[in-house]
Amino acid sequence: MLASRDKPPTGSFDYTSRGTKLWLFAMLAAVMLILAVAERALDPDFRRRLATGGQMARSNQEIDTRLPPQPIIASEPDSFAAAATPPPPTGWDEALSRVEDDTLFLRPTERVVWQLLEQRVQETDPTELKRESLGEVGFAQLFHQPEVYRGRVVTIRGTVMSASRIDLDGDDPGRERYVLWIMPAGGPNSPFVVYARAMPDGFPLIQPQSGGRLTRLREEISVTGLMLKRGSYHAQDGPRTAPVIIANVPEWTPPTVASSDNSRTSFGPGWFLPIALAALGLAAAFVCLAYCLSIRGVRSGRRAADQRLVAADFRGVKVGPSATETLRQLEQERSESA
C-alpha cells in the first residue's frame, strides 16, 4: 500500500523545516549586521574610540564633576559678598594666586587675571602659542590638577555641543565673548568651557539669546589657550564643575572638507553608499537563493511522489466500474423490470 506520510528522499530541500528557517534567519541577521556596522562607522566619535581601543573613554568614565555642598559664609573674603574690595594684584603670579577652583566662572577678584590671560592669547602669534602649548591635554588632567595647568598653554579637542555670546563688561562692547561647551574627544560626558574672543570664518552663527539659552551645535573643534580654573556651573542635576580655558580664535575645519578627507583615508560618508549597495546585493542574493531552494524542494517533492507511485504495489486492489458503466447497468435493470 502507498504510505501517506513518507518522508522526502535524502538530498531534497525542505524549506519548511525548523533548521532551514533558522538558517534563513541567520542570513538575514548577517545583512542587518553589515548595515549596522556601516552606520556606526560614520560616527567620528566611534571611529576615534575604536582607534584608541576605548582606553581614553574608559579612563574618563568614572570622573564625577558634581560639586559637593559648600557652607554659606555671609562675608566671605574675595567674593561678591565681601565687605571690601581687595587691592589689585601687582603681577602675574599674584593674580594667579587669587584664582579659586570650584567657584563661579566670573568673579570680581579674578578680573585682573582674566585680562592678563586674554591679553596674552591675543598678542601672541597662534603659531608661537602652539609651540608653547603643553600638547593635547585630556579632561582628566585639567579636572584633577587645575593648579598645575593654571596660566599655562594647553590644547584640547572635542565637539562643540552648544554655545552662547555674553558681555563680560556691559560698558565695553569689545568685551563680548563666545562661550563654548565642548565635549572632550574620547570622553567623558562632561564638558570643557572655553571663552573665545572670536570664531573662525564660516563657523555656524551664534546669536545672542536672552534667558541664558544656548545655540545647539555639533562641530569638531580644537582649542589652544590658557587654563584658568576648574569653575562651577549650575546643571540640571545641581552644581557641577568644568575646566575653564581662555582662548583667542579656535581651530575649526568645515564638515564638508573633513568628510571628503575621511572618505579617502578612513570610514566616512563616502563609504556608506558602497557598503549599503553591498548589503542590498547580499540581501537580493539571499532572496534569490531562498526562492531557488524552495522551487528545488517543490520539484524534489514531486519527483519523490512520482517515484513512490511507480514503486507502489497495486496487486489485490479492486477497481470498481466507471460511472458510465454504472449508469448503463442501471438503465438495463430498469428495462428488464418494466
Shape: rod-shaped
How many beta strands in the DSSP annotation? 7
- H-E order: HHHHEHHHHEEEEEEHHH
CATH superfamily of the largest domain: Nucleic acid-binding proteins
Kindly give the count of domains.
2
Number of helices: 11
Strand content: 15-25%
| CATH class label of the largest domain | Mainly Beta
CATH architecture of the largest domain: Beta Barrel
CATH topology of the largest domain: OB fold (Dihydrolipoamide Acetyltransferase, E2P)
C-alpha Rg (nearest Å): 39 Å
Helical residues, percent: 40-55%
Tell me the span between the first and last alpha carbons: 44 Å
Largest sheet: spatial strand order: 2-3-4-6-5
* Biggest sheet descriptor: 5 strands, mixed, barrel
Structural notes for this entry:
It is a single chain. It is built from 11 helices and 7 strands. With 338 residues, it is of the alpha+beta class. It folds into 2 domains: 12-42 and 267-311; 57-266, Beta Barrel (OB fold (Dihydrolipoamide Acetyltransferase, E2P)). β3 (176-184) and β4 (192-196) form a beta hairpin.
Main features:
338 residues; alpha+beta; OB fold (Dihydrolipoamide Acetyltransferase, E2P); 2 domains; 11 helices; rod-shaped; disordered N terminus
Give the gist of this structure.
Helix content is 42%, strand content 19%. The chain has 11 helices and 7 strands.
Per-chain topology:
Blueprint: H1 18-41, H2 44-51, H3 55-60, H4 92-97, E1 103-104, H5 111-123, H6 126-132, H7 139-144, H8 146-149, E2 153-167, E3 176-184, E4 192-196, E5 215-235, E6 238-247, E7 251-252, H9 255-265, H10 269-311, H11 323-337
Parallel strand pairs: 1-5, 4-6
Antiparallel strand pairs: 2-3, 2-5, 3-4, 5-6, 5-7
Helix pairs in contact: 1-10
